[in-house]
């Protein structure tokens, strides 16, 4: 435990290993894989460049009420591309962001996966009070260390769905500004879909034809499961493919170390999905994901972009995720951010996500508010591939 910062209502830890097993038991959060100590330990072990902090909030009887996963990261502003580029340049001109050095961000949430994976609140708790307590604990932790207080540029709390905003908007009282980010593309799996053919049968002709064309184009591709036996040989190859995708992304909070997959496969077995795609013995892609309760969450993918169009690699991957989810009898498929239009063509609909950002300096924080009002998700044309189900975008 980080002894320099003790607070009556919060305990601070710098490693998952320091948190007693009775605390996990009392919280009851390990059914959710993102709050499982083994999952968190895998991220921690493979990302030494990140400072990990964990907060356990406790009640008057010293019983755990909530858990928060936090990180201190160096965010490279030069990694921001596409729509965010203009905003980044304005931010630099107004000195909201540093010119040459990276932005030191104190993040609450999972920097690699989109969704509400930063804060777990135990049942029967006052959620607003917990978020308020968390905001106070973050301030306490940073202010208690003069060196750290000087280093941190900004605080980010990520990613909340619309139905959580009535709770999380209390962060505004602490100077945080909400802004919308790229949505999570979410596919609701119909209970009548017993297999992939049922999914195809539910589609309008145009989209079914498109799917069959993608399968025809990708017919030469051989799909192999990545196992603990073959992972060492495959890792360097899939890392190269992942880096190409990461470079194409407009906004990345960090580079994921694919060595993490070894730990995840070891600890979670078939719950962690990892598949490789081969063309004439050459690796041309991979997909990863995790089964979390009733959902399949798509994680990172890697694609050989030069062959993607000809062999419909990415399109095929999306259908494979769907087939895995149907075969596992799951209810939801979270495709995550990016490539919203193509994901909507396979049936996914956008789920709005909100982040909260606060600058450490008061005046810069006021400028930041104006700046964030201009940050909007990239518009895209929503497709409706199903015959009867016309999904509706979740509105604010």
Structure description:
- The structure is a single chain.
- The protein has 14 helices and 13 strands.
- The model is unreliable at 1-5 (pLDDT under 50).
- It has 396 residues and is α+β, with helices and mostly antiparallel strands.
- It is globular.
- Strands 1, 2, 3, 4, 5, 6, 7, 8, 9, 10, 11, 12 and 13 form a 13-stranded mixed sheet that branches.
What would you say about this model in short?
This protein is an alpha+beta fold and 396 residues long.
List the helices and strands and how they pair.
Elements: E1 10-13, H1 21-27, H2 37-46, E2 51-58, E3 64-75, H3 84-93, E4 103-108, E5 119-121, H4 127-143, H5 146-151, E6 154-161, H6 165-168, E7 177-188, H7 196-201, H8 205-217, E8 222-225, H9 231-248, H10 260-268, E9 272-279, E10 282-292, E11 295-303, H11 305-311, H12 313-327, E12 332-336, H13 340-344, E13 349-359, H14 362-372
Parallel strand pairs: 4-6, 11-12
Antiparallel strand pairs: 1-2, 2-3, 3-4, 3-5, 6-13, 7-12, 7-13, 8-9, 9-10, 10-11
